[in-house]
Amino acid sequence: MALMFYTLRDYTYPAVEKPFFNDKKIFAFFALGIVIGMLLFAFESWGQTISSTETLLALIVGFAVMEELLKLVVLNYPKFQRKIDTAFYGLAFGLGISATFTFATIYSSALSLESVKAEDMVAFSLLGIQLVLLHGSTTALIGIGVARGNLKAYFSEALLFHLGYNVLMIPFFMFEIVTPPFNLIGLAAASAVVIYAYVKVHRTSLPALVSDAKRLAKKAEPVRRT
Questions:
Q1: How many CA atoms lie within 13 A of 22 on its CB side?
Q2: Does 225 reside within a domain?
Q3: 31: domain range?
Q4: From the DSSP assignment, how many helices (H) and strands (E) are in the chain?
């Protein structure tokens, strides 16, 4: 929620006179994300129990595609198409997903350990930050695509970020194909992917959407007669 406030504060009162989104809808999408996050965790936990190193590629691709398609189905509802506020609702939806998905993932991982060491705490903290940035950025990108009416490009971008993250994290940590300390390379690279994705959304994608919307609104204004 802190990250959501930090990202959205420039697009609502008092930063702007007319907010770009409705506060009630923001928290409604955040709440929906909380529910979806638990459902995704339950399904993927079951999928991991029947997976193996032989099915690693299917796991990497399948989870990423399933998650991003689910986000697309929710955000691409006709009522939200080609509306600028959909991008902001997408961000809230993704952060809601990450809230429960991250907590459940870390909690279940900690339960599997006989004792939690300092390095485990650091790894869990990094994993939590990664998942929040991943779901926040990818869902916001899909929301921007729905708002712009350009689903193919933005969905593909979101999926590529997700696939890149999975490729770096699942083999290095879930199946421990790469042993310590070399697995830290995957952790660092995965962190770089999601940090870049979120910074891009916050500093480039959302501001560009707002700028284009203002420009189009200005063009649509009737010309005053002198």
A1: 7
A2: no
A3: 2-12+22-210
A4: 8, 0
CA 88-91-93 angle, 5° bins: 110
What pLDDT sits at residue 147? 97
Give the chain's domain count: 1
Q: Residue 222 has what pLDDT? A: 62
Considering the domain boundaries, does residue 215 fall inside one? no
Q: Do the domain assignments include residue 72?
A: yes
Query: What would the two tokens of residue 129 be?
Result: 């930050």
Count Cβ atoms within 10 A of the Cβ of residue 87 and give its class: 0-12 exposed, 13-18 middle, 19 or more buried: buried
Whole-number Å distance between alpha carbons of 16 and 213: 14
Average pLDDT over residues 137-155: 97
3-state secondary structure of 218: helix
More confident position, 114 or 178: 114
Pair 197, 159: CB distance under 8 Å: no
Q: Minimal CA–CA distance to 120: which of 187, 171, 56? A: 187
49 pLDDT higher than 80? no
